[in-house]
Write a structure and sequence with these properties.
The structure is a single chain. The protein has about 170 residues and is of the alpha+beta class. Helices cover about 15% and strands about 35% of the residues. Strands 4, 5, 6, 7, 8 and 9 form a 6-stranded mixed β-sheet that branches. It has a 3-stranded antiparallel β-sheet with strand order 1-2-3, with no helix packed on it. It binds zinc ion. Zinc ion (ZN) binds next to loops.
């Protein structure tokens, strides 16, 4: 989001040179630059080993898609780091406690102006308890994952994280 008015005092912002960053919206009253802002989210590929291999937890969330299933995701809240946010979102949405977490990278989702922080999460827990935001969930074998996920596209952190997983660990 590009600011036109000061979020603090409401004054119309002017364009002012900000060093190497060029012209940036500026509030003359608050003496503050207002750089473009965007949301920060985490998205977590929750994985679990069983006797046959690796399974991944996919969520059915009708407000997002009727057709495709999603990894756990959510907004980072103020004061939290991305790792804390990832553990919290997985616990809140699924009741699953992750044993560990590993960063997969970041993706910028242009459509909603969100910087997505991707993670691969590990758990030994198979039972889940879904929050009211989630309409359903299932463990899907790694080999079948692509049948359920939105296909690869620019800024698609879910597919990106899945690809990172394959690069690191194969099937
Ligand atoms: Zn102001």
């Amino acid at each position: 989001m590009r600011y036109e008015y000061c979020p603090k005092c409401g004054k119309k912002l002017i364009q002012k040179q900000a060093g190497d960053d060029g012209l940036v919206p500026y509030c003359e009253d608050c003496e503050k630059y207002w750089f473009d802002s965007f949301g920060s989210c985490v998205i977590i590929m929750v994985t679990r080993k069983n006797n046959d291999g690796t399974e991944v937890l996919l969520l059915r969330q009708k407000y997002m898609s009727d057709e495709y299933m999603n990894f756990v995701s959510g907004y980072i809240t103020v004061g939290e780091n991305a790792e804390e946010s990832a553990y919290r979102e997985v616990l809140e949405e699924t009741g699953i406690k992750l044993d560990s977490l590993e960063y997969s990278g970041t993706w910028f989702f242009e459509l909603q102006e969100l910087l997505m922080h991707g993670f691969i999460g590990y758990t030994s827990q198979s039972e889940f308890t879904l929050s009211s935001e989630v309409d359903g969930a299932q463990w899907v074998p790694l080999e079948k994952l692509e049948d359920y996920m939105y296909p690869d596209s620019p800024g698609n952190a879910q597919f990106g994280t899945y690809q990172v997983y394959l690069q690191r660990y194969g099937r």
